[in-house]
Amino acid sequence: MRIFLVIAVTLIVSGCASQGPSDEYLQSLAAVAVSNPARSEVDRQLDAKRKPAEVLGFFRTRPGMKVLDVFGGGGYYTEILSYLVGDSGAVTLYNNNPWNQFVKDQVAARLKDNRLPNASALTVEPEGLGQVTEQYDAAIFILGMHDIYYEDNANGWPAIDVRAFLLDIHRLIRPGGILGIIDHNAQSGSDPEIVGKTLHRVDPARVISDLEAIGFSLEAKSNILRNPGDDLTGLVFAKELRWQTDRSVLRFRRK
Question: pLDDT > 90: what percent of the chain?
């Protein structure tokens, strides 16, 4: 596994093509990480519905990168990224305290006994993110951006200053770096404060608008997680919709 990734780094550095490696080539590297036998069966059972190799290939994630996993929850993507970026890269799983309480001991179990030596956990509230000085080549924000728009005190979710939070994410990504976003789609023009809280969805047009307003440019969209059969009005945790929602996959570049 490590030998394969060393070879991959060499190919990327030497230049597979004048414009860098293709999405398909990067997807093949991600597929090797996904196939790592150290991954749990629980995680593997989600692969067909989450398509992590296709996602990370599209996000152009590769060996040697430093990646921030924003609101990474229990670390499903953090572990795959750990194998993908290899010994010369690093992954930070960032949660706030409510996210850590939601996933309970999942992060501690995933990182126990240094089983992912290039991965670390960061817990800080959004308003404290300005004190983080690390720079990253890329960040991913998977199924969590809808959470920044609403407040739910009854369930322990605080209000977040959306612009300030996104500006901090922008600052943590080096110029030219990538931000990969996946989220459950809501109906066009819907209020993110309402559908974020009630359905855990967000209108992708709002995501694009808010990110472009603070210095990201939308580079590409992918249909790999689209589902035209989803009418965009159901709760994403409903049994018939779980991991079957219509999801946008968006790649942004930091200016």
Answer: 92
